[in-house]
Design a protein that fits this description.
Blueprint lengths: L1 H25 L3 H14 L4 H13 L3 H16 L5 H17 L3 H18 L2
């Protein structure tokens, strides 16, 4: 029973951190949101949503170079999970936009192409 409760408690803590970080972002407190998300990924690097949101938050702060690591981790994490196509698409989109803003157009194009491929696959 302890292991089950531990997992449930851990998930609740991570979700609360994500909700809190989202509220901070909504309030325009991006730097604070980034710190909350950094804590979340430090505690559990396999938390896909926190990696994605950390990357998006850093990108929103104009720190795309720093956003690449959590965005790539989010992409890999979501790709390993079943039923996470939305997360994969969101990571590709964020990565494409970061690479484009950094002038790394070939990498941006690769991620945009991956998104188009996902859209075409969904329509079949």
């Amino acid at each position: 029973m302890t292991v089950v409760y531990s997992g449930i408690i851990e998930q609740a803590v991570f979700r609360n951190q994500a909700v809190y970080a989202g509220a901070l972002r909504f309030a325009g407190r991006e730097e604070e949101a980034a710190r909350v998300l950094e804590d979340a990924v430090r505690i559990n690097p396999e938390y896909c949503d926190a990696q994605l949101n950390l990357g998006r938050t850093r990108a929103g702060l104009g720190r795309c170079r720093e956003a690449l690591v959590p965005l790539n981790r989010a992409l890999l994490c979501f790709e390993q999970q079943e039923f996470k196509a939305t997360g994969v698409a969101a990571a590709h989109d964020a990565l494409a936009n970061c690479y484009r803003s950094l002038g790394r157009f070939a990498e941006a194009q690769w991620h945009f192409s991956a998104l188009r491929g996902m859209d075409q696959g969904a329509g079949e």
